[in-house]
């Protein structure tokens, strides 16, 4: 009998606690307001010390059924890749744990000599990405890809923690819903690990110089990454 009474009291306490927490969450959601629109700035990306990262733009993650917003970013990422290559800026790729080089979408497919790493959401984790970037004398990375709250958020944070500047074209990241993209951008803009190293921009506001001297230097950097094709 005593056990039954004790058990009943425990059930009542747990039910009351669950109700209290539910009330807290509801209040929190009601009190939350959208953050101010972040400041978007033009950025000049020096091809001599900047690298472009294209994260997880694969058939599995970037398709009409799972993440249609990702498909909308592909033409913009492809255009940015073309401008980077024209200036001799290195382009590096990542794969999800289930991806292969052949599953990267054709419009943004890597060239034969462009490095590919494979990991979970943090593309520095147990890969040679940091080694590649250091070998290329990289100071800043342009980060594009999907998901905004996955590979983009965690790789940008890891890059900043390693001392790289982060250039984030907000029109070249994606999630299933706009709210998630907004949240990821806000966290990167305001987070203690990234706020001093990140620049928010749009792909058409990124200037990549292409004069011959800079292009030749950039091509030398790209050659340093040759031989690193393949996954980690």
Class computed from helices, strands and strand pairing: alpha/beta
**General form:** globular
- Total number of β-strand segments? 9
Low-confidence stretches: 1-7, 10-14
Number of helices: 6
* Helix proportion: 40-55%
> Could you spell the SSE succession in H and E letters?
HEEHEEHEHEEHEEH
**Average of per-residue pLDDT values:** 88
* Radius of gyration over all CA atoms, rounded: 22 Å
**Percentage beta strand:** 15-25%
Tell me about the largest β-sheet: 7 strands, parallel
Distance between the termini: 61 Å
Please provide a brief summary of the model.
The protein is α/β, with parallel strands linked by helices and 232 residues long. It has helices at 2-31, 68-86, 129-135, 148-161, 178-190, 212-224; strands at 43-44, 50-55, 91-95, 116-118, 140-146, 165-169, 173-174, 198-201, 206-207. Strands 2, 3, 4, 5, 6, 7 and 8 form a seven-stranded parallel beta sheet that branches. Strands 1-9 form a two-stranded parallel sheet.
């Amino acid at each position: 009998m005593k056990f039954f009474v004790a058990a009943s009291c425990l059930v009542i306490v747990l039910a009351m606690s669950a109700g209290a927490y539910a009330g807290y969450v509801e209040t929190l959601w009601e009190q939350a307001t959208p953050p101010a629109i972040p400041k978007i700035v033009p950025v000049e990306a020096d091809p001599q010390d900047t690298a472009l990262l294209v994260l997880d733009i694969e058939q599995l993650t970037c398709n009409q059924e799972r993440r249609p917003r990702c498909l909308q970013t592909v033409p913009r990422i492809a255009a940015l890749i073309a401008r980077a290559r024209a200036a001799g800026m290195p382009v590096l790729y990542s794969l999800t744990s289930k991806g292969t080089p052949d599953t990267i979408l054709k419009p943004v497919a890597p060239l034969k000599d462009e490095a590919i790493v494979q990991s979970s959401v943090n593309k520095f984790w147990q890969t040679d990405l940091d080694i590649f970037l250091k070998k290329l004398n990289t100071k800043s990375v342009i980060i594009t890809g999907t998901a905004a709250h996955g590979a983009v958020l965690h790789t940008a944070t890891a890059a900043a923690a390693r001392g790289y500047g982060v250039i984030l074209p907000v029109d070249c990241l994606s999630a299933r819903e706009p709210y998630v993209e907004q949240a990821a951008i806000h966290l990167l803009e305001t987070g203690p690990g990234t706020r001093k190293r990140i620049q928010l921009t749009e792909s058409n506001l990124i200037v990549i110089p292409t004069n011959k001297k800079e292009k030749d230097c950039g091509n030398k950097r790209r050659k340093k990454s040759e031989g690193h094709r393949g996954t980690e």
